Amino acid sequence: MKICQTIAEMRSDQGARAKTGRFGFVPTMGALHEGHLSLVRAAKKQSEVVAASIFVNPTQFGPNEDFAKYPRTFERDCELLKNEGVDFLFAPSAEEMYPKGAVTWVTVEGLSDKLCGRSRPGHFRGVTTVVSKLFHIVEPDIAFFGQKDAVQLVLIRRMVRDLNMPVEIVGCPIVREADGLAMSSRNAYLSPEERKSATVLNRTLKEIRKHFDQGERSTSKLLSAGIKIFQQEPGARLDYLEIIDPESLHAARTISKEALVAIAAYIGTTRLIDNGMLQSNLVV
Ligand code: PAF
Prior knowledge:
This protein is α/β, with parallel strands linked by helices. Helices cover 37% and strands 19% of the residues. The strands form 2 sheets. A 6-stranded parallel β-sheet has the order 1-4-3-2-5-6, with helices on both faces. Helix 7 crosses helix 8 and helix 10 runs antiparallel to helix 11. The protein is globular. The relative contact order is 0.13.
């Protein structure tokens, strides 16, 4: 695996990979877990050459968020990526990615202030800016993102469409622990007690699915059923629980075809997210 720390190095290798077929890309912030590795495995299946990136992107963290303490496990991450057969790792510094005085942003208007974007102002602007920069630098044919960050995925698809970026976006299923907790680098922050409480996100989604499967289509009734379960967990504080259209992200009153149920909650000081689709059956 070739590790490139500068944009010039990453670009200089593109001639070699251009001849070899489809170029797959898995952008990450490191602290890799099975969720990330499932993206790499999907990339390996669907492309001949695979690059990953590790960059803890400062612009997607708010001033009082966890940028400084975000887990950084670079050596271990490199081993994992090497073992999966990744060809290139792009691991730039913040100075390399953001030239001094950079003032240009990519914003998906009307979507970037919804859900996590409402609770974390500026977060999605940071995500779409860095992902568009990574796409310009790496120039992948196909890029892989986790469905756990469902709203992020909606925004990235929209950005790619609106800006005519020549990259196919693939969303990969959420990978869960045995008790249903969605894998996340932030799970590392949880104490043993909090780790138990954290399953409430998935339990809330499952309760909503149960009522949906029994025929309930009113979103206010589905949300009330979910909130009842959530409130039984004293260690958790709800940020949002919403049932929305999976493209427009608008709140739905009733579900005709399909809807996305998205939840964000604080377990102690750790903010976690999870989601599931309500179709004929909800996968959570
Ligand atoms: O999902 C993530 O890990 C990050 O938001 C991403 C897409 C790598 C951008 O920093």
